[in-house]
Design goal:
The protein has 8 helices and 10 strands. By secondary structure, the chain is α/β, with parallel strands linked by helices. The longest helix is centred in the middle third of the chain and has 11 residues, at 85-95. It binds zinc ion (ZN) (2 copies).
Protein backbone atom coordinates (compact mmCIF):
# COMPACT_ATOMS: atom_id res chain seq x y z
CA UNK A 1 0.00 0.00 0.00
CA UNK A 2 1.12 3.52 -0.73
CA UNK A 3 -0.02 6.89 0.50
CA UNK A 4 -1.25 9.27 -2.21
CA UNK A 5 -2.09 12.97 -1.94
CA UNK A 6 -5.54 13.65 -3.35
CA UNK A 7 -8.00 16.45 -4.01
CA UNK A 8 -11.24 14.88 -5.18
CA UNK A 9 -13.45 17.94 -5.58
CA UNK A 10 -12.36 20.51 -8.17
CA UNK A 11 -14.61 22.60 -10.45
CA UNK A 12 -13.72 23.71 -13.97
CA UNK A 13 -15.06 26.84 -15.68
CA UNK A 14 -18.00 24.72 -16.82
CA UNK A 15 -19.47 25.27 -13.36
CA UNK A 16 -21.02 28.75 -13.48
CA UNK A 17 -19.34 29.60 -10.18
CA UNK A 18 -15.94 28.38 -11.46
CA UNK A 19 -13.35 30.98 -12.47
CA UNK A 20 -12.43 31.15 -16.17
CA UNK A 21 -8.85 30.22 -15.22
CA UNK A 22 -10.13 26.72 -14.33
CA UNK A 23 -9.13 25.15 -17.65
CA UNK A 24 -7.99 21.52 -18.01
CA UNK A 25 -4.28 22.30 -18.30
CA UNK A 26 -4.30 25.01 -15.63
CA UNK A 27 -5.94 22.59 -13.19
CA UNK A 28 -3.62 19.62 -13.78
CA UNK A 29 -0.53 21.86 -13.84
CA UNK A 30 -1.49 23.50 -10.55
CA UNK A 31 -2.26 20.09 -9.04
CA UNK A 32 1.20 18.92 -10.14
CA UNK A 33 2.88 22.03 -8.69
CA UNK A 34 1.11 21.36 -5.41
CA UNK A 35 2.39 17.78 -5.48
CA UNK A 36 -0.94 15.97 -5.75
CA UNK A 37 -1.07 12.41 -7.07
CA UNK A 38 -4.79 12.09 -7.83
CA UNK A 39 -7.45 14.69 -8.50
CA UNK A 40 -11.09 14.55 -9.53
CA UNK A 41 -12.98 17.04 -11.64
CA UNK A 42 -16.52 17.43 -10.33
CA UNK A 43 -18.62 20.06 -12.07
CA UNK A 44 -22.18 20.85 -11.05
CA UNK A 45 -24.56 18.49 -12.88
CA UNK A 46 -22.22 18.25 -15.89
CA UNK A 47 -19.32 16.20 -17.25
CA UNK A 48 -18.32 18.13 -20.40
CA UNK A 49 -14.78 19.01 -19.25
CA UNK A 50 -13.87 15.68 -17.65
CA UNK A 51 -12.36 14.01 -20.71
CA UNK A 52 -10.17 17.05 -21.63
CA UNK A 53 -8.88 17.08 -18.03
CA UNK A 54 -8.06 13.35 -18.20
CA UNK A 55 -6.17 13.98 -21.47
CA UNK A 56 -4.30 16.96 -20.01
CA UNK A 57 -3.45 14.90 -16.92
CA UNK A 58 -1.87 12.10 -18.96
CA UNK A 59 1.01 14.38 -20.00
CA UNK A 60 1.92 14.82 -16.32
CA UNK A 61 1.07 11.32 -15.09
CA UNK A 62 -1.67 12.94 -13.02
CA UNK A 63 -4.57 10.58 -12.35
CA UNK A 64 -7.82 12.45 -13.03
CA UNK A 65 -10.78 10.48 -11.69
CA UNK A 66 -14.00 10.96 -13.69
CA UNK A 67 -16.56 12.65 -11.45
CA UNK A 68 -19.52 14.98 -11.07
CA UNK A 69 -21.21 16.94 -8.27
CA UNK A 70 -24.95 16.41 -8.47
CA UNK A 71 -27.56 18.67 -6.87
CA UNK A 72 -30.42 16.42 -5.81
CA UNK A 73 -34.07 17.39 -5.50
CA UNK A 74 -33.52 18.14 -1.78
CA UNK A 75 -30.67 20.55 -2.70
CA UNK A 76 -28.03 18.17 -1.36
CA UNK A 77 -24.68 18.08 -3.18
CA UNK A 78 -23.63 14.53 -3.92
CA UNK A 79 -20.29 13.58 -5.49
CA UNK A 80 -20.09 10.59 -7.82
CA UNK A 81 -16.88 8.94 -9.02
CA UNK A 82 -16.33 6.27 -11.66
CA UNK A 83 -13.26 4.33 -12.70
CA UNK A 84 -13.68 5.16 -16.39
CA UNK A 85 -15.03 8.06 -18.39
CA UNK A 86 -17.25 5.62 -20.29
CA UNK A 87 -19.07 4.61 -17.10
CA UNK A 88 -19.48 8.24 -16.07
CA UNK A 89 -20.92 9.04 -19.50
CA UNK A 90 -23.36 6.12 -19.37
CA UNK A 91 -24.47 7.18 -15.89
CA UNK A 92 -24.85 10.79 -17.01
CA UNK A 93 -27.05 9.81 -19.99
CA UNK A 94 -29.59 8.46 -17.50
CA UNK A 95 -29.12 11.21 -14.92
CA UNK A 96 -29.65 14.13 -17.30
CA UNK A 97 -33.24 13.13 -18.03
CA UNK A 98 -33.88 14.68 -14.59
CA UNK A 99 -32.72 18.16 -15.63
CA UNK A 100 -35.40 20.86 -15.57
CA UNK A 101 -34.33 22.31 -18.93
CA UNK A 102 -33.88 25.91 -17.77
CA UNK A 103 -31.44 27.98 -19.81
CA UNK A 104 -28.39 29.63 -18.29
CA UNK A 105 -28.23 33.42 -18.15
CA UNK A 106 -24.44 33.99 -18.16
CA UNK A 107 -24.81 37.67 -17.17
CA UNK A 108 -26.44 36.55 -13.90
CA UNK A 109 -25.11 33.08 -13.13
CA UNK A 110 -21.76 33.12 -14.98
CA UNK A 111 -20.46 31.44 -18.11
CA UNK A 112 -20.37 27.65 -18.42
CA UNK A 113 -17.32 27.06 -20.62
CA UNK A 114 -16.42 23.87 -22.45
CA UNK A 115 -12.77 23.25 -23.40
CA UNK A 116 -10.75 20.82 -25.46
CA UNK A 117 -7.62 19.22 -24.01
CA UNK A 118 -5.51 22.20 -25.19
CA UNK A 119 -7.66 24.70 -23.25
CA UNK A 120 -9.34 26.05 -26.39
CA UNK A 121 -12.93 27.13 -25.64
CA UNK A 122 -15.14 24.95 -27.84
CA UNK A 123 -18.53 26.08 -26.59
CA UNK A 124 -20.78 26.96 -23.68
CA UNK A 125 -23.31 24.74 -21.96
CA UNK A 126 -26.69 26.34 -22.53
CA UNK A 127 -28.69 24.56 -19.83
CA UNK A 128 -28.44 26.09 -16.37
CA UNK A 129 -26.28 23.73 -14.30
CA UNK A 130 -26.74 25.30 -10.87
CA UNK A 131 -30.28 24.24 -10.11
CA UNK A 132 -31.47 21.02 -8.49
CA UNK A 133 -32.26 17.95 -10.57
CA UNK A 134 -35.65 16.27 -10.28
CA UNK A 135 -34.26 13.15 -8.62
CA UNK A 136 -34.09 12.37 -4.93
CA UNK A 137 -30.93 11.84 -2.91
CA UNK A 138 -31.77 8.15 -2.35
CA UNK A 139 -32.48 7.48 -6.03
CA UNK A 140 -29.29 9.27 -7.11
CA UNK A 141 -27.16 7.19 -4.74
CA UNK A 142 -28.79 4.01 -6.09
CA UNK A 143 -28.25 5.12 -9.69
CA UNK A 144 -24.55 5.83 -9.05
CA UNK A 145 -24.20 2.39 -7.45
CA UNK A 146 -26.03 0.74 -10.34
CA UNK A 147 -23.42 2.11 -12.77
CA UNK A 148 -20.55 0.91 -10.59
CA UNK A 149 -19.65 4.31 -9.16
CA UNK A 150 -18.93 5.55 -5.66
CA UNK A 151 -21.44 7.98 -4.12
CA UNK A 152 -19.87 10.44 -1.66
CA UNK A 153 -22.07 13.09 -0.01
CA UNK A 154 -20.25 16.42 -0.44
CA UNK A 155 -19.15 18.76 2.37
CA UNK A 156 -21.63 17.11 4.77
CA UNK A 157 -20.81 19.52 7.61
CA UNK A 158 -21.32 22.71 5.59
CA UNK A 159 -24.28 24.95 6.42
CA UNK A 160 -25.78 24.75 2.92
CA UNK A 161 -26.31 22.17 0.14
CA UNK A 162 -25.32 19.35 2.46
CA UNK A 163 -26.75 16.20 4.01
CA UNK A 164 -26.63 17.75 7.48
CA UNK A 165 -28.21 21.09 6.45
CA UNK A 166 -30.82 19.79 4.00
CA UNK A 167 -31.69 16.28 5.21
CA UNK A 168 -30.61 16.54 8.83
CA UNK A 169 -29.05 13.06 8.77
CA UNK A 170 -27.48 10.58 6.39
CA UNK A 171 -29.80 7.65 5.58
CA UNK A 172 -28.05 4.46 6.66
CA UNK A 173 -29.75 2.06 4.23
CA UNK A 174 -27.90 3.36 1.15
CA UNK A 175 -24.66 2.07 -0.45
CA UNK A 176 -22.42 4.85 0.88
CA UNK A 177 -18.92 4.09 2.18
CA UNK A 178 -17.39 7.56 2.41
CA UNK A 179 -18.41 11.15 3.16
CA UNK A 180 -16.64 14.42 2.40
CA UNK A 181 -15.81 17.01 5.05
CA UNK A 182 -15.09 20.57 4.00
CA UNK A 183 -11.50 21.74 3.88
CA UNK A 184 -10.46 23.04 7.28
CA UNK A 185 -12.59 20.60 9.29
CA UNK A 186 -11.01 19.29 12.48
CA UNK A 187 -11.94 15.70 11.84
CA UNK A 188 -11.52 14.35 15.38
CA UNK A 189 -13.58 17.19 16.85
CA UNK A 190 -16.29 16.70 14.24
CA UNK A 191 -16.46 12.95 14.90
CA UNK A 192 -16.60 13.45 18.66
CA UNK A 193 -19.68 15.63 18.15
CA UNK A 194 -21.21 13.44 15.45
CA UNK A 195 -20.19 9.85 16.25
CA UNK A 196 -22.79 8.53 13.77
CA UNK A 197 -20.29 9.39 11.01
CA UNK A 198 -17.46 7.31 12.51
CA UNK A 199 -18.46 4.26 10.52
CA UNK A 200 -17.72 5.99 7.19
CA UNK A 201 -14.45 6.72 5.48
CA UNK A 202 -13.79 10.45 5.16
CA UNK A 203 -12.22 12.62 2.52
CA UNK A 204 -11.29 16.26 2.84
CA UNK A 205 -11.26 18.16 -0.44
CA UNK A 206 -10.83 21.71 -1.64
CA UNK A 207 -14.09 22.28 -3.59
CA UNK A 208 -11.81 24.65 -5.54
CA UNK A 209 -13.42 27.12 -7.92
CA UNK A 210 -10.11 28.93 -8.53
CA UNK A 211 -6.55 27.66 -9.00
CA UNK A 212 -5.18 29.01 -5.72
CA UNK A 213 -7.67 26.93 -3.72
CA UNK A 214 -6.60 23.54 -5.09
CA UNK A 215 -5.33 21.48 -2.12
CA UNK A 216 -1.76 21.27 -0.95
CA UNK A 217 -0.41 17.82 -0.02
CA UNK A 218 -2.47 17.64 3.16
CA UNK A 219 -4.94 14.80 2.63
CA UNK A 220 -3.80 11.27 1.79
CA UNK A 221 -5.39 7.92 0.98
CA UNK A 222 -3.75 4.50 1.23
CA UNK A 223 -4.16 2.63 -2.04
CA UNK A 224 -2.70 -0.51 -3.59
CA UNK A 225 -2.04 1.29 -6.89
CA UNK A 226 -2.12 4.76 -8.37
CA UNK A 227 -5.28 4.23 -10.41
CA UNK A 228 -8.85 5.49 -10.51
CA UNK A 229 -10.21 1.98 -9.96
CA UNK A 230 -8.13 1.51 -6.81
CA UNK A 231 -9.51 4.81 -5.47
CA UNK A 232 -13.10 3.87 -6.35
CA UNK A 233 -12.73 0.62 -4.41
CA UNK A 234 -11.41 2.58 -1.41
CA UNK A 235 -14.35 5.02 -1.56
CA UNK A 236 -16.92 2.23 -1.78
CA UNK A 237 -15.77 0.10 1.15
ZN1 LIG B 1 -21.05 21.55 -3.32
ZN1 LIG C 1 -18.34 21.71 -5.38
Amino acid sequence: MHSYAVDLHIHTALSPCGEEEMTPNNIVNMAAIKGLDIIAVTDHNAIGNVQPCIEAGKKLNMVVVPGIEITTQEEVHLLAYFDSYQLLEEFYCTLKSNQMGLRNRPEIFGKQLLFDSKDVIIGEEELLLMNALQISFDDTVRLIHQFGGAAVPAHINRSSFSVMSSLGFLPTHLPIGCVELFNGTEKELFLSRHPEYKKYRHIISSDAHCLANIMERIFFVELSSLTASSLIQWLKI
